[in-house]
């Protein structure tokens, strides 16, 4: 029996890119499984990458993506 009680992101992608390349966005809040908040995006090419939620460009990307979802 395996439970995901660990961080999903080992490292984060640091090069900014346009939100149009994001197909899906998941925000995982910090908790007993991981002390860090994590942002995981699935790109239009199918690749999943972790983004650093403290980076300004990442915060802007999340805002754009949330507005697009409304």
UniProtKB/TrEMBL annotation:
**KW Disulfide bond (keyword) present:** yes
Q: What does this protein do?
A: Chemotactic factor that mediates inflammatory response by attracting neutrophils, basophils, and T-cells to clear pathogens and protect the host from infection. Also plays an important role in neutrophil activation. Released in response to an inflammatory stimulus, exerts its effect by binding to the G-protein-coupled receptors CXCR1 and CXCR2, primarily found in neutrophils, monocytes and endothelial cells.
The UniProt record lists the Chemokine interleukin-8-like domain at 4-65
Question: A single GO CC term, please?
Answer: extracellular space
Q: Which UniProt keywords apply?
A: Chemotaxis, Cytokine, Disulfide bond, Inflammatory response, Secreted, Signal
Return the SMART domains for the record.
Answer: SCY
Family statement: Belongs to the intercrine alpha (chemokine CxC) family.
Q: What biological process terms from GO does the record include?
A: immune response; inflammatory response; neutrophil activation; neutrophil chemotaxis
Recorded superkingdom? Eukaryota
Listed GO molecular functions? chemokine activity
What are the subcellular locations of this protein? Answer: Secreted
Q: Where are the transmembrane segments?
A: none
Can the keyword Disulfide bond be found in this entry's annotation?
Answer: yes
- In Swiss-Prot or TrEMBL terms, this protein is called C-X-C motif chemokine
